[in-house]
Design goal:
Structural class: alpha+beta
Radius of gyration: 25 Å
Order of helices and strands: HHEHEEEHHHHHHHHHEEEE
Shape: globular
Distance between the termini: 50 Å
Number of strands: 8
């Protein structure tokens, strides 16, 4: 894993430098378009100020904002002991020194994501729908995937590059909007006073770059985001030694038709599968944040002999029909034999799949501060948090219960 982490850091550095160059160039060109004499330096300074502000916000409270926007709530071990147990297993298997905080999202759509910039302050969030649909092997595969993102430092990279992308898009939009709302006249008059024709040409270049710069940065960001999903899948196989667990989980997630209203374009890239996928949408294009789920599943099910990176790379090449290095060469040199294990077939919380799905509603209610009373007659009474009375009666047997 160490070789993969180091390779990830090197590639992250190259990407961030590339996006940084786009940011600097954008600031310089747009600044020069406003003020030909010395405006380029001012534009670069403003670009970095915007990036710095977004950077500070993300590092100080980015994870909290992401979790809040997603409707995630931190839970204790008592809410779902098996989930905590699986996260702890994957934390130990990955060698990560810190236990991530655990959140549950009150959504019936199956999905999950990891967040956290610092290694000692990370979190894994899963939806109630995921817990209701998966067995233990499948949930372990999902958690291993998210733990891999944490260990591989993907979250830090996605945060930094995402902020830089946001700054590029913001600066470009401000410039374009300024042209629409009365800015064009100022450029023309200034052009006639100064260098005339040359200034108009420079303004045209600035407009083109304001349009193409964010597109180039986005395509670069999306391409690397997709590659990191493959790497997290490969790492998850090493952690669980059971590729079918993750493959089956992805299959169930992709088959869901339940929407996630709280997911948006900003948070979509963080999930294990695109939560914004609509029926009839193309499986994959240049603007996708995720590789096609069907392709990921085929790669995972193509692993037959070992859980090492070389086996994943071979399966990847067979599915893609070409040789493409998705795993860094340094990681492929590790030839330590990693045998695959058999399925456990253990359902979550000792329940059958059907009963587990029925508990999703109860879990969502718990997240929303409902309390429960189990009546001796077999009825589970669900009490909303705004219920004001101190007593409640069973709708079946009429027994009186005191609310504590």
């Amino acid at each position: 894993m160490w070789e993969l982490i180091q390779a990830n850091k090197r590639k992250s550095t190259v990407l961030i430098i590339t996006m940084g160059m786009i940011l600097v160039l954008l600031g310089y060109i747009l600044g020069s378009a406003y003020y030909p004499n010395g405006g380029g330096i001012i534009g670069v300074v403003i670009a970095f100020i915007i990036w710095g502000i977004l950077y500070l916000i993300a590092f100080s409270s980015g994870s909290k904002i992401l979790l809040a926007v997603s409707g995630a709530k931190e839970v204790t071990k008592q809410v779902h002991p098996q989930l905590f147990n699986i996260v702890e297993e994957m934390k130990i298997a990955s060698g990560h020194p810190y236990m991530p905080k655990i959140y549950i999202i009150d959504s019936a759509a199956p999905n999950a994501f990891a967040t956290g910039i610092k290694p000692d302050n990370t979190a894994i969030a899963v939806t109630a729908g995921l817990l209701g649909r998966l067995n233990r092997d499948e949930l372990q595969g999902v958690i291993a995937h998210e733990m891999s993102h944490i260990v591989n430092r993907d979250i830090l990279f996605m945060t930094v590059s995402g902020i830089m992308l946001g700054a590029i898009v913001l600066i470009s939009e401000v410039f374009i909007r300024s042209l629409w709302f009365g800015g064009g006249g100022r450029y023309r008059s200034r052009s006639s006073r100064d260098s005339g024709q040359a200034q108009l040409i420079f303004l045209a270049i600035a407009i083109i770059f304001a349009i193409l710069g964010p597109i180039a940065a986005q395509l670069l960001y999306f391409a690397i985001s997709r590659k990191r999903e493959y790497l997290a899948d490969a790492s998850a196989v090493r952690l669980t030694r059971y590729p079918e667990g993750l493959a089956s989980a992805l299959e169930k997630i992709s088959q869901s038709t339940i929407d996630m209203p709280k997911a948006n374009k900003v948070t979509a890239a963080m999930y294990i599968a695109n939560p914004l996928k609509k029926k009839g949408e193309k499986l994959h294009d240049l603007t996708s944040t995720h590789p096609p789920v069907s392709e990921r599943i085929r790669i995972l099910r193509g692993i037959a002999h070992s859980a090492d990176f070389a086996e994943y790379q071979n399966a990847f090449n067979k599915v893609k029909g070409k040789t493409s290095k998705i795993i860094p060469q340094s990681a492929l040199k590790d030839v330590t034999p990693l045998g695959l294990r058999e399925a456990t077939g253990i359902p979550l919380a000792g329940l059958t799949q059907k009963k587990s799905q029925r508990n999703v509603g109860d879990l969502i209610m718990k997240l929303n501060d409902y309390s429960f009373i189990n009546c001796p007659c077999g009825v589970k009474i669900k009490i909303p948090p705004d219920y004001k009375k101190d007593k409640v009666y069973c709708p079946r047997c009429g027994r009186e219960h005191t609310i504590k």
